[in-house]
Amino acid sequence: MIKDAILDEFECAKEIIRDNFFAWKYTNSIFGVWIWNLLAFTFLAYLKDFENIISTEATDIATEIGVQTVLHTFVLTILTIIFAMSCDKAEKGAIRLAKLCNMLQADITDPILVEELKHLSNFIKELRPRFTVYGFFNVNQQTIPVFISAVTTYVIILIQFKINK
């Protein structure tokens, strides 16, 4: 009786994981372009702001650039970081759930339940949510340092062009 209820719960869990996988998959396909645009626009806003800072005199920085431009770039940065961290948290949550299934296998003596836990763990690993930017790269916590290094590289290039002029 209890074993049947547990097996039913395993099936419900698999169904929920499958539904979540398809939700993540369709979210990726629908919003992949928007995610790409957010990252690209934030990147370009950074470059524009740094170019403005480099090209203006030190006394004119406060009036030329304006607080609105810097605030706009800051808001885009915060949105990008929040999005990347949310995607990372969803991916790591699935990994934690799969690890929990593996740890529970050691505590359970019933071979049928152990087998179901193995299947559930493999099922979770296969259908783990992964956000991608238009299929090019995964969006997770590792995206943030890559983004920062790309901005830094292009800022250095901008500085070198301004020095040569």
TrEMBL record:
UniProt keyword list: Cell membrane, Membrane, Receptor, Transducer, Transmembrane, Transmembrane helix
A GO cellular component annotation in the UniProt record: dendrite
Biological process according to GO: chemosensory behavior; male courtship behavior; sensory perception of taste; signal transduction
Organism: Phyllotreta striolata
Name of protein: Uncharacterized protein
Transmembrane segments: 26-47, 67-87, 144-163
Membrane topology of this protein: Multi-pass membrane protein
Subcellular location: Cell membrane
Keyword ATP-binding set for record: no
A Pfam family it matches: 7tm_7
